[in-house]
Amino acid sequence: MTKTLILIPSRMAATRLPGKPLLKINNLSIISHVFKRAEEAGVGEVVVATEDKEIFTDVLKNGGRAIITKKNHKTGTDRIFEAYTKLDIKNVDYILNLQGDEPDINKNDIISLNNYMINNEADMGTLAAQIKDNKMLDDKNIVKVITESKIEENNFVKALNFTRGNLSVNNLNIYHHIGIYSYKVSVLKKFISLPQTKNEIKNRLEQLRALDNNIKINVALSKSSPIGVDTEEDYLAIKKIIEYKANNE
User: Fold this and answer.
1) Which residues, 6+ apart, have CB-to-CB distance to 134 below 8 Å?
2) Alpha carbon 5 to chain centroid, angstroms
3) Are strands 4-10 and 44-50 parallel, antiparallel or unpaired?
4) pLDDT at residue 243 greater than cutoff 70
5) What pairing do the DSSP bridges indicate for beta strands 157-163 and 174-184?
6) pTM of the model
7) More confident residue, 232 or 181
8) How buried is residue 119: exposed, middle or buried, by Cβ count under 10 Å (0-12/13-18/19+)?
9) What is the share, in percent, of the chain residues with pLDDT greater than 90?
10) Contact indicator for 179, 114 with CB cutoff of 8 Å
11) How many whole angstroms from its chain centre is CA 24?
């Protein structure tokens, strides 16, 4: 049976919104919301990888599992690889890297990506959502993915590029990239052994290191388009959404 491990990198030192993992929504921190969504997906063990004792303590206090990693990692992927190595969990086939700042991630999307990876024996995969507002094409805070063909309900298409830049509505096959990745363990080992590329550093997108080194990334369609918490405005918006859902369940 195929075994998946979900790792969630998280740290306090975000440049635009320092301390965001511990901001509260319904009396629960953002990072603990993400942990619980991952756990609800039921695809494998879930562990938060962090350099910060405050995050470690918060996750444990809320019933989760966490591990302390080094402070000097350049990317979240380097952090999850250290966590995977330290945890020494046997016979893991896929590692799913879930961003720690998307507390409204849909558990069904986590399940979907894991199934696509296993069924296609893919090397690396991610999710993307339809762009419903053309303003997103000009927003540099929103990462877009350009795919080889249209993403349908039941396909897993090849990514051609990822960008923060302005894109024309006339460009074909542009989607809103969702911050979740899955890797075959062997591919993750290869990825973190590669030096950062100029393209990756310039665009602040580590997935470009994979494309620059001919590692194929497949993309599946996400059911939802969760808000990543990068700014105070993002936090207030997602707080409102989650509180509304909780009060209307």
Assistant:
1) 169
2) 14
3) parallel
4) yes
5) unpaired
6) 0.93
7) 181
8) exposed
9) 73
10) no
11) 20
